[in-house]
Structure formats: structure tokens, C-alpha cells
Amino acid sequence: MAEKEVPQDFAATLARLEGLVTRLEAGDMSLEASLGAFEEGVSLAREAQQRLDSAELRLQALVEGPEGALTPTAFTAPDAAGSMAGEADEEKDW
């Protein structure tokens, strides 16, 4: 069985997983197709969890000081263009 391509972002991974669940719940696939969809769904769920874990670690790194002490940091949600409000439009490496 060929390995399916993993979506590049969390939203696409989640959408693909939801599509598989819908197809499985419909119950109109063969046993083999159902098993393949289930295996792909497990893989996608693991990928989504890894992305969430990675995001959590990145956030922790942003609020922990160099010696591990937590420092209060205000969270600013990104605007529609994806940049943080009040920041200059410069390329981020995160």
C-alpha cells in the first residue's frame, strides 16, 4: 500500500481526518477500503497530535525565561494577514 501524502498544515490534516471519519461513518466502503481509511486516519491523528505538541513546546519556550522561570507575556493574536498586531512586517523564523 502506497503511503498517503501528509497535509502540510494542521487545518488540512484535520479536514482530511474529518473527511475519512465521514466516509467511515457512512458505512458504504468495502472492508479493505475501510481498513485503509482507518489506517490513514490513525496516521493523520498522530500527525495532528505531534503538531499540537510541537506548538505547545514552542509556546512554552516563548514564555519561559532562560533559567526556566516563567515571565508574564501578553499574547497578541495575529491579524488577518498573519502578522502580530503592532509588529513591523518582517519575516519571522518561527
UniProtKB/TrEMBL annotation:
<dbReference type="GO" id="GO:0008855">
    <property type="term" value="F:exodeoxyribonuclease VII activity"/>
</dbReference>
<dbReference type="Pfam" id="PF02609">
    <property type="entry name" value="Exonuc_VII_S"/>
</dbReference>
<keyword id="KW-0269">Exonuclease</keyword>
<protein>
    <recommendedName>
        <fullName>Exodeoxyribonuclease 7 small subunit</fullName>
        <ecNumber>3.1.11.6</ecNumber>
    </recommendedName>
</protein>
<keyword id="KW-0963">Cytoplasm</keyword>
<keyword id="KW-0378">Hydrolase</keyword>
<comment type="similarity">
    <text>Belongs to the XseB family.</text>
</comment>
<feature type="region of interest" description="Disordered">
    <location>
        <begin position="69"/>
        <end position="94"/>
    </location>
</feature>
<comment type="subunit">
    <text>Heterooligomer composed of large and small subunits.</text>
</comment>
<comment type="function">
    <text>Bidirectionally degrades single-stranded DNA into large acid-insoluble oligonucleotides, which are then degraded further into small acid-soluble oligonucleotides.</text>
</comment>
<keyword id="KW-0540">Nuclease</keyword>
<dbReference type="InterPro" id="IPR037004">
    <property type="entry name" value="Exonuc_VII_ssu_sf"/>
</dbReference>
<dbReference type="InterPro" id="IPR003761">
    <property type="entry name" value="Exonuc_VII_S"/>
</dbReference>
